[in-house]
Write a structure and sequence with these properties.
Elements (H helix, E strand, L loop, with lengths): L4 E4 L24 H10 L3 E7 L1 H4 L5 H17 L6 E5 L22 H10 L7 E4 L2 H10 L3 E5 L14 E3 L6 H4 L10
Parallel strand pairs: 1-2, 1-4, 2-3, 4-5, 5-6
Subcellular location: Cytoplasm
GO biological process, one term: carbohydrate metabolic process
Family: Belongs to the gmhB family.
Length: 190
Amino acid sequence: MKRKALFLDRDGVINVDYGYVHRQQDCVFVDGIFDLVRLANATGYQVVVVTNQAGIGRGYFSESQFVAFMEWMRRRFDERGARIDRVYFCPHHPVAGMGRYRQACACRKPQPGMLHDARRDLDLDLSGSILVGDKQSDLDAGARAGVGRRFLFVGGQPGQAEADPAADVVARLSDIGVALRGTGITAEHA
């Protein structure tokens, strides 16, 4: 039986996006993220991070620094009783990437490559899955992959609500819990 996933963008959804966050001292977790992941775990969703990390391609930090930072981040979740099942990242940038990282690839959102990899690796039903992102490229990747429910997390930032009309716009991560429980989204979030 195929499983469902809660796909999370990293910067702007899991942690506050200060730009190319890759050090522990620069990481501030978004309010409600640990509760959301615990709820996803409890309701049978695989929690999968899908993140563009052009800072690698631009030479701001290395892949090994990114991996070490994500291991640290996953331990913070584990300490709070929340589990991230898998992390997928794209280190490429089609224009600003250096060397082998300069390429138009299938993994950089809005392309759906990371979502397709997760589907294959984890035996996922994408139509029954949920994606939470803070940018249109996140939502576009989800739509292209056939993710059934897409949320634009605005965190109270005006202007982002103009995005994908097929996505639900939420200002609090706790609002997504309604969808995880399978009861649908309430009118106040439409």
